[in-house]
């Protein structure tokens, strides 16, 4: 009894620091936020109770609705793309035979940069006539060359594979030797055509507004697409590391057995790797959803480089109300929006858990 | 119990009939950067003796970054300094929250429109410490190379634009002006037409006068007179002037300290803002900062005294003669320093004249604050980028302003 009592006491002592910080910074903060969300409060005058009017004001505030749409769109895109990319990169890095350490380090580099430094670098890359525009400009200028190159590869590769298959069985469509020959022939073809003047270079004085624009692309402002690109670039490496850890815990015997059963690389990936990684995928997706729904720093650093409506997210909307430029704080509105964001986050994670990627491997 | 030296000092002051040293410490706060040198210079070089006589020790706590957030947070938490800067842009949010003490000293020596800018519900809550207006700063060498006449005080929008186009035609690698799609610069043009940000009923009407200025400003890029600052790889017009990418910049006197670092040998000239041809008038925006005493300060009297000393004629003259800021006291307008021929002296003179332009408004937008500028900035931006036309952009700005001001 005495021993059990002392164990219980130590147990409580162990969780005490966490309980205190949780009570202080989570429970107390959330209760206070909930209270303020029903009041009109500017940080100075005593809060006055206004019922649900902050919430009704939110629903009729166009900026809030824009922020909500932006946040959901951003979260959807970034979570999907970065999970897929991180998995692909992890598989690639896991298979790298040579310089595995170097490859991993290079891929992980973007994650060790601070988000502020990264945003400033991207601000520069995203200038209207900057690096990103130059890439698009080159692709546009040489689109005929690029097209011809790929058509050439496909044609030569197809011809070589078909010819080989008449004699031998089991020649892969992506046979690496044929691919090399095909690429070389296609390149020769492109160079020859270019020299003969058959491929005009499309002359463009391209200016792309990546950030400073009110244009939309599908369901999201162009600005947020650019931020999404930046966000994916910086987050993928961390997620890749998680997948990599997961990949290394899958027993090799499974792959060997599947190979003996005649499963090809894709089938092994689809039926062994993906299901075995499910707990990791669940963690990655959940972290991505939470991180992207609450994305703030990258749009805050953008500042005046982009119009507010093109970059506002829910977290930024909260900040914008708590500290509006040149006006009194609207803590009631900020609290209401913060609660909406919190509830939205929990709801999306729950929905993801019940209909999306499950927590346990099948 | 008093320590021995202190006891001796107290006895000595009593014997000599001097006022007893109160020895109060006043915490004051303003921005970091170059302001640290200004305030510390004032405290040690100019005011040290007077402060010692008053028995006041001043501690300057500079803040880099978002100053208004620092103050709002500090005031709500009860940790704010006793005396601090308020920018006209957000001063109202401090005054209306009852966080500032009204000014009691005589302010008759200060420029009336600056005093008015810091007056809220009939009471003055801050002593203006300095101010800035907009002017046209130009690189004389570029105009000489292009063989184009310098900008002048007599320029209208049109003649200035023609000069800029001529510069760009003569020197294709140089643009006339780097444009920022912001009310903070465009506003001076809009105001010169006689348009006012708020009408008598508190509404913002983007009328024909506003539209005339809007079309001129957004048309500068298309006419070849200007380039968007962001397209020149700069975040502000001064950066373009410093890198000789642009021939002129429309900025305040703050450009002097920026050029001192980045283009110290530039042959700089400064003239007043161009006139609107139709109204024949000039417009300008006043940027000003004042000292405010924290209403919750335990040493509010000492803090008010420090504010008085920091804005005294002696202090402002020192600041002016260092070329650091323009005085808010009208008495210093005919100071001999301002008649000098050095670029910073000429610039200061022109900026000072800007205060008496025909239509001058402070950089302040009532209860709604900086949000008021967003629809206008968005309209400027989208038209300059060619994403939409003036009709659509102004209609959507008008409806955004109507919604904002209806609340």
TrEMBL record, chain A:
InterPro entries: MetI-like (IPR000515), MetI-like_sf (IPR035906), UgpAE/MalFG_permease (IPR050809). The keyword Nucleotide-binding does not apply. It holds the Pfam family BPD_transp_1. It is found in: Cell membrane. GO terms for biological process: transmembrane transport. The chain crosses the membrane at residues 12-31, 72-93, 105-126, 146-165, 177-202, 222-245, 276-293, 331-351. Its main location: membrane. Residues 68-352 form the ABC transmembrane type-1 domain. One of its GO terms (cellular component) is plasma membrane. It is a multi-pass membrane protein. Keywords: Cell membrane, Membrane, Transmembrane, Transmembrane helix, Transport. Belongs to the binding-protein-dependent transport system permease family. This is ABC transporter permease. It comes from Sinorhizobium americanum.
Automatic annotation (TrEMBL), chain B:
GO terms for molecular function: maltose binding. It comes from the Bacteria. One of its GO terms (biological process) is maltodextrin transmembrane transport. InterPro entries: SBP (IPR006059). Keywords: Periplasm, Signal, Transport. GO terms for cellular component: ATP-binding cassette (ABC) transporter complex, substrate-binding subunit-containing. Belongs to the bacterial solute-binding protein 1 family. This is Extracellular solute-binding protein.
């Amino acid at each position: 009894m005495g021993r059990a009592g002392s164990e219980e006491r130590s147990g409580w002592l162990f969780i005490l620091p966490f309980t205190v910080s949780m009570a202080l910074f989570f429970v107390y903060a959330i209760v206070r936020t909930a209270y303020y969300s029903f009041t009109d409060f500017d940080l100075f005058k005593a809060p006055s109770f206004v019922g649900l009017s902050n919430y009704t004001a939110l629903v009729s505030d166009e900026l809030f609705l824009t922020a909500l749409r932006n946040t959901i769109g951003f979260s959807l895109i970034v979570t999907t793309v970065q999970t897929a990319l991180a998995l692909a990169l992890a598989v690639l890095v896991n298979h790298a035979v040579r310089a595995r350490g170097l490859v991993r380090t290079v891929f992980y580099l973007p994650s060790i940069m601070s988000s502020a430094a990264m945003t400033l670098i991207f601000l520069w890359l995203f200038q209207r006539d900057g690096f990103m525009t130059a890439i698009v400009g080159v692709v546009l200028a040489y689109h005929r060359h690029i097209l011809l190159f790929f058509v050439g590869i496909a044609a030569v590769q197809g011809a070589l594979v078909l010819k080989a298959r008449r004699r031998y069985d089991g020649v892969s469509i992506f046979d690496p030797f044929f691919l090399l020959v095909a690429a070389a022939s296609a390149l020769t073809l492109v160079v020859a055509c270019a020299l003969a003047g058959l491929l005009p270079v499309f002359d463009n004085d391209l200016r792309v507004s990546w950030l400073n624009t009110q244009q939309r692309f599908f369901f999201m402002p162009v600005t947020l697409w650019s931020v999404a690109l930046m966000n994916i670039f910086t987050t993928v490496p961390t997620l890749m590391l998680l997948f990599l850890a997961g990949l290394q815990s899958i027993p090799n015997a499974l792959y060997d057995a599947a190979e003996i059963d005649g499963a090809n690389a894709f089938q092994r990936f689809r039926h062994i790797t993906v299901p075995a990684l499910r707990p990791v995928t669940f963690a990655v997706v959940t972290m991505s959803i939470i991180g992207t729904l609450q994305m703030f720093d990258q749009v805050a650093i953008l500042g005046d480089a982009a119009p507010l409506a093109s970059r506002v997210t829910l977290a930024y909307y909260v900040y914008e109300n708590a500290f509006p430029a040149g006006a009194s704080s609207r803590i009631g509105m900020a609290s209401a929006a913060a609660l909406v964001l919190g509830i939205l986050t929990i709801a999306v994670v729950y929905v993801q858990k019940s209909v999306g990627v499950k927590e346990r491997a099948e | 119990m008093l320590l021995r030296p202190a006891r001796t000092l107290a006895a000595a002051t009593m014997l000599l009939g001097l006022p007893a040293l109160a020895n109060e410490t006043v915490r004051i706060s303003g921005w970091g950067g170059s302001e640290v040198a200004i305030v510390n210079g004032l405290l040690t070089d100019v005011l040290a003796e007077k402060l010692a006589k008053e028995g006041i020790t001043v501690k300057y706590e500079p803040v880099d970054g978002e100053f208004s957030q620092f103050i709002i947070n500090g005031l709500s938490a009860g940790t704010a300094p006793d005396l601090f800067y308020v920018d006209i842009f957000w001063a109202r949010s401090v005054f209306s929250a009852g966080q500032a003490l009204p000014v009691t000293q005589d302010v008759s020596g200060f420029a009336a429109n600056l005093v008015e800018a810091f007056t809220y519900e009939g009471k003055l809550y801050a002593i203006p410490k300095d101010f800035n207006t907009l002017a046209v700063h130009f690189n004389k060498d570029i105009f000489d190379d292009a063989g184009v006449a310098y900008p002048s005080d007599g320029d209208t929008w049109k003649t200035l634009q023609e000069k800029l186009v001529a510069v760009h035609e003569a020197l294709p690698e140089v643009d006339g002006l780097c444009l920022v799609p912001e009310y903070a610069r465009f506003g001076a043009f809009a105001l010169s037409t006689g348009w006012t940000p708020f009408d008598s009923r508190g509404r913002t009407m983007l009328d024909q006068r506003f539209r005339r200025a809007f079309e001129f400003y957004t048309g500068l890029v298309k006419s070849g007179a200007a380039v968007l600052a962001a397209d020149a790889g700069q975040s502000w017009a001064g950066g373009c002037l410093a890198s000789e990418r642009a021939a002129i910049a429309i900025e305040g006197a703050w450009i002097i300290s920026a050029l001192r670092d980045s283009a110290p040998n530039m042959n700089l000239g400064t003239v007043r803002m161009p006139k609107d041809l139709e109204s024949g008038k000039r417009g300008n925006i006043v940027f000003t900062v004042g000292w405010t005493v924290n209403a919750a300060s335990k040493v509010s009297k000492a803090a008010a005294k420090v504010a008085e000393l920091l804005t005294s004629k002696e202090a402002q003259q020192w600041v002016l003669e260092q070329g650091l800021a323009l005085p808010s006291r009208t008495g210093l307008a005919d100071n001999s320093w301002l008649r000098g021929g050095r670029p910073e002296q000429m610039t200061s003179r022109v900026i000072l004249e800007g205060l008496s332009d025909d239509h001058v408004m402070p950089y302040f937008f009532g209860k709604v604050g900086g949000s008021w500028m967003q629809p206008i900035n968005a309209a400027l931006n989208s038209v300059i980028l060619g994403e939409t036309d003036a009709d659509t952009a102004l209609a959507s700005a008008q409806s955004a302003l109507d919604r904002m001001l209806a609340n």
